[in-house]
Amino acid sequence: xxxxxxxxxxxxxxxxxxxxxxxxxxxxxxxxxxxxxxxxxxxxxxxxxxxxxxxxxxxxxxxxxxxxxxxxxxxxxxxxxxxxxxx
Length: 87
Description:
Elements: H1 4-30, H2 32-44, H3 52-84
């Protein structure tokens, strides 16, 4: 069996799955990540009127997480372009 004939459909499926992962990651930048860090900050706070600590945890956690996910999105985009042959 010729494996070259199977390469096209496999690449299309891989590209579609990668596009879905990229979509999820992009939406998480403005939804999942900030909400998760707000929850983490609420768990760090000992009272309803916390000091600056929990706010800084949320701020730097959100910024760091968004930077990591944005970097991963860039890598996924490069892979997507290789899979689809687009520029």
